[in-house]
UniProtKB/TrEMBL annotation:
<dbReference type="Pfam" id="PF06289">
    <property type="entry name" value="FlbD"/>
</dbReference>
<protein>
    <recommendedName>
        <fullName>Flagellar protein FlbD</fullName>
    </recommendedName>
</protein>
<dbReference type="InterPro" id="IPR009384">
    <property type="entry name" value="SwrD-like"/>
</dbReference>
Length: 89
């Protein structure tokens, strides 16, 4: 997944494999395979760079995978996990 920013400043992640095309006129619009469109703050070269970085990370990670080892693959820093149940008081 790549993280991008809506025009209102909210961030979201999108699967780059589902992006059909990227348009820039003047806003950058991601057109997805299913027809959904997302207008984002990042410019065309930046979105292409995010996709290239993500794919490079996938390849680099695949080269170092040990069978049976679970790895988290992300280009977005992961926050500390939120417990499903409140801790005891």
């Amino acid at each position: 997944m790549i993280a991008v920013t809506r025009l209102n400043g909210s961030r979201f992640a999108v699967n780059p494999d589902l992006i059909e095309r990227i348009q820039e006129n003047p806003d950058t619009t991601l057109v997805m395979v299913g027809g959904a469109t997302y207008v984002v703050r990042e410019g065309l070269p930046e979105v292409i760079g995010l996709i290239a970085d993500f794919r490079a990370l996938v390849i680099a990670t695949a080269q170092h995978v040990v069978p049976g080892e679970l790895r988290q693959l992300s280009v977005v820093p992961s926050p500390s996990p939120t417990p499903l149940r409140p801790t005891e008081r």
